[in-house]
Amino acid sequence: MLKIAPDYYEITVFGAEPHPNYNRILLSPVLAGEMTIQDIILNDHAWYAEHGIQLHLGRKVSRIDRVQRRVIAEDGTEEAYDRLLLATGSNPFILPIPGNDLPGVISYRDISDTDAMIDAARRYRHAVVIGGGLLGLEAANGLKLRGMDVTVVHLADWLLERQLDQMAGRMLQKSLEDRGLTFLLGKQTGSADRR
Ligand SMILES: Cc1cc2nc3c(=O)[nH]c(=O)nc-3n(C[C@H](O)[C@H](O)[C@H](O)COP(=O)(O)OP(=O)(O)OC[C@H]3O[C@@H](n4cnc5c(N)ncnc54)[C@H](O)[C@@H]3O)c2cc1C
């Protein structure tokens, strides 16, 4: 919109997270200790100010009043709109198993999940990653680099089964095992327990 008609709209952005928009794809290098949140921020506060965009960070929108054309955040912040764009992303799928809400059970989607993993790596030794897809393997690699013993539990018989055939999956598994990761393949997680 800034490019097409910079003066047409007054733009307001609400974000539930406390940071300006960052490159989510680069969370794994942050987890692995190769980058920081500052390195992956795409547009900092100065950029928003420079472009006249009002930025409400850490404010989760909880209500849209379509009659009055207003959005209302959990903390009561309100803004009026003529056009409203929802770009709220997605939520990670959490396995519907007993124990999935225990402390220490987290998903991998944002910087707070990444910080929780970094913190866990400082305080604990053993990590289990459920899911041997791209995100699971990136998480496992990062946790390993941070000194944890990591086991990946995966439903399919080989890693990245959507991207690789069995032989390539086995080759990948071997190279990750050489880096110290452990795999449980063809296994369905029954529950999370904290003994
Ligand atoms: C670790 C990781 C690695 C990835 N790697 C790749 C990759 O290599 N290649 C690839 O193509 N994709 C990758 N993805 C997926 C990619 O990041 C997402 O597809 C992309 O971020 C989706 O962009 P989006 O703008 O739709 O949503 P998001 O990036 O999720 O942004 C939505 C934002 O809206 C905010 N929000 C939600 N609800 C509200 C509300 N009620 N009020 C205010 N704000 C709200 C959220 O907090 C979030 O900040 C990766 C994802 C992760 C987590």
Description:
- With 195 residues, this protein is an alpha/beta fold.
- It is built from six helices and eight strands; from the N terminus they run βαααββββαβαβαβ.
- A three-stranded antiparallel β-sheet has the order 3-4-5, with no helix packed on it.
- Strand 4 and strand 5 (78-80) form a beta hairpin.
- It binds flavin-adenine dinucleotide (FAD).
Pick out its properties.
195 residues, alpha/beta, FAD/NAD(P)-binding domain, 2 domains, 3-stranded antiparallel beta sheet, 3-stranded parallel beta sheet, 8 strands, binds flavin-adenine dinucleotide
Write the SSE topology.
Elements: E1 12-15, H1 27-31, H2 37-40, H3 45-50, E2 54-57, E3 61-65, E4 70-73, E5 78-80, H4 111-123, E6 126-130, H5 134-145, E7 149-154, H6 166-178, E8 182-185
Parallel strand pairs: 1-2, 6-7, 7-8
Antiparallel strand pairs: 3-4, 4-5
Bound molecules: flavin-adenine dinucleotide.
What is the number of independent domains? 2
Give helix and strand order, one letter per element, not per position.
Answer: EHHHEEEEHEHEHE
Classified by CATH, the class of the largest domain is Alpha Beta
Mean pLDDT rating = 96
Helix segment count?
6
Query: What is the end-to-end distance?
Result: 53 Å
| Percentage of residues assigned to helices | 25-40%
CATH fold annotation of the largest domain: FAD/NAD(P)-binding domain
Q: Any idea what the radius of gyration is?
A: 21 Å
Q: List bound small molecules.
A: flavin-adenine dinucleotide
Q: Could you name the CATH homologous superfamily of the largest domain? A: FAD/NAD(P)-binding domain
Structural class, by secondary structure, is: alpha/beta
Largest sheet: 3 strands, antiparallel
Total strands: the figure is 8
The portion of residues forming beta strands comes to 15-25%
Strand order of the largest sheet: 3-4-5
Q: Which residue ranges are poorly predicted, with pLDDT under 50 across at least 5 consecutive positions?
A: none
Instruction: Assign an overall shape.
Output: elongated
State the CATH architecture of the largest domain.
3-Layer(bba) Sandwich
